[in-house]
Amino acid sequence: MKLHWSPRSPFVRKVMITLHETGRLDEVELMRNVVAAHLPPNPAVLADNPLGKIPALVTDDGVLFDSRVICAYLDRDEVLPDGPRAQTWAALADGATDILLAWRTELSRPIGPWAAITGSYLVKIRAVMAHLEAEVGSLTAAPFGPGHVALVCFLGQLDFRWPDCAWRDHFPGLAALAADWAARPSVAATAVVDDGTGDNALTAGILTFAKETT
């Protein structure tokens, strides 16, 4: 199998964690490809995924795209316990990750970001983090599964792209749980890497969790 891959993509990281957890890493050849919303579609990726997105997994059964589809295919033996709760966490994490990626694109517009859009993103990410903090007990009790994988990757993007947001100071339960996940071999082995293909952090103070004062 061949995987359209990037060390910076949170959705590719989901696939990589799943490969580690299922013991199938040696079955996949990684193909480094750069994709971004503000760049022309990458021809190599577009040839396999008409959406021009990564990850895309080339298999003997055809090409699979969307990280949840790929992860389910790789974990056919159900090494990672799944179910409605796990999939709900995965959907929340994937949706929040999409917001972070769209937010970065909005901030990079030459004419400047649309304040109504970025304001909406801020409210939603704050709500997601508050919801996850309330879910710490359930997340801790549940076995490590697809929902946890997706949440690891979402929080990894917060650390990589928004390093000044200090989310751990405001969500201590989630921070402690994330520290436990970080010690897991599959998570440690797939930490986001800046390989010099673009910028990293955003303008300081854009994403904050502190209470606003007047």
Describe the structure.
With 214 residues, the chain is α+β, with helices and mostly antiparallel strands. It has two domains: 2-74, 3-Layer(aba) Sandwich (Glutaredoxin), CATH 3.40.30.10; 84-188, Glutathione S-transferase Yfyf (Class Pi), Chain A, domain 2. The protein has ten helices and four strands. It has helices at residues 10-22, 43-46, 67-74, 84-107, 115-134, 136-141, 146-161, 167-170, 172-182, 185-188, and strands at 2-5, 29-32, 56-59, 62-65. A four-stranded mixed beta sheet has the order 2-1-3-4, with helices on one face. Helix 1 links the parallel strand 1 and strand 2. It is globular and about 50 Å long. The chain starts with a strand and ends in a 26-residue tail after the last helix. The model has no long low-confidence stretch (mean pLDDT 93). This is Glutathione S-transferase N-terminal domain-containing protein. Pfam families: GST_N_2 (PF13409). Residues 1-82 form the GST N-terminal domain. InterPro entries: Glutathione-S-Trfase_C_sf (IPR036282), Glutathione_S-Trfase_N (IPR004045), Thioredoxin-like_sf (IPR036249).
Query: Rounded to an integer, what's the Rg over CA atoms?
Result: 17 Å
- Note the main sheet: 4 strands, mixed
Integer tally of domains: 2
CATH class of the largest domain equals Mainly Alpha
What's the tally of helices? 10
- The residue fraction in helices comes out at 40-55%
Provide the β-strand percentage band. 5-15%
What structural class is derived from the secondary structure elements?
alpha+beta
Shape: globular
How many DSSP-defined strands? 4
CATH architecture of the largest domain: Up-down Bundle
Distance between the termini: 56 Å
For the biggest β-sheet, the strand order reads 2-1-3-4
Mean pLDDT: 93
Order of helices and strands: EHEHEEHHHHHHHH
Q: Any idea of the CATH topology of the largest domain?
A: Glutathione S-transferase Yfyf (Class Pi), Chain A, domain 2
Unreliable segments (pLDDT under 50, ≥5 consecutive)? none
Domain GST N-terminal: 1-82
Pfam families: GST_N_2
Protein name: Glutathione S-transferase N-terminal domain-containing protein
